[in-house]
From TrEMBL:
Lineage: Bacteria, Bacillati, Actinomycetota, Actinomycetes, Micromonosporales
Keywords: Membrane, Transmembrane, Transmembrane helix
Coiled-coil segments: none
One Pfam family recorded for the sequence: DUF998
Protein name, as recorded: DUF998 domain-containing protein
This protein's record includes keyword Membrane: yes
TM annotation in the entry: 48-65, 70-87, 107-128, 135-155, 167-184
């Protein structure tokens, strides 16, 4: 019963965190990276940080309640996600190979990529363990994330990469919330 309550808490927290990120990102231009919303001076950097920290906590709660191979990538994602919220990029979030980046930008980008990548790996592990919802999520999310990575390297900043990044992140957040909801419906284990 306690694991259902933790999963329900994760679902609510994940949904609220996703909404906070939408609030933070919505005023920005589509050709900006999502992380640009967290830079001091943007309209809602506190919403961005709270959303990121909330997603880190959501992943942590899911790692704790899952108790399967899915828990490992989620648990490792937690500090990466939290660090990506703590270390913001500089204005404009410049990324190589087309822009001059600082060490701060590279640290933020690396932890963000690892956090999202580990969540995507957890999604794949859940699909492998038989979660139909996770199989659908993999089918949707993985191509979006791959296209985002290719777009950043091949094209650089632009509306295409901005839209792909947003869609991939939305798919990850929807999976976290959906997976949490799935865990609330799972029959309790007996030892």
């Amino acid at each position: 019963m306690a694991s259902r309550a933790v999963a329900a808490t994760a679902a609510v927290l994940g949904a609220i965190s996703g909404l906070l990120l939408v609030r933070a990102v919505a005023p920005g231009a589509l050709d900006d990276y999502v992380s640009a919303s967290g830079v001091p001076g943007q309209p809602h950097p506190a919403s961005y940080r709270l959303g990121i920290y909330g997603l880190a906590l959501t992943a942590g709660l899911l790692a704790w309640v899952t108790r399967s191979i899915v828990a490992l990538p989620l648990a490792v994602a937690v500090p990466m996600i939290a660090l990506s919220g703590s270390v913001t990029c500089t204005p404009g979030c410049p990324l190589p190979p087309y822009e001059q980046s600082t060490a701060q930008d590279l640290l933020h980008a690396t932890t963000s990529i690892l956090g999202v990548g580990l969540c995507a790996l957890a999604m794949l592990a859940a699909a492998w363990r038989g979660s139909r919802f996770s199989r659908i999520a993999v089918f949707v999310t993985w191509p979006l994330l791959a296209a985002t990575a290719i777009g950043i390297v091949a094209v650089g900043r632009g509306a295409m990469t901005g839209v792909l990044e947003r869609l991939g992140l939305v798919a990850c957040v929807v999976w976290l919330v959906g997976f949490a909801v799935h865990l609330t419906r799972r029959p309790p284990s007996h030892g």
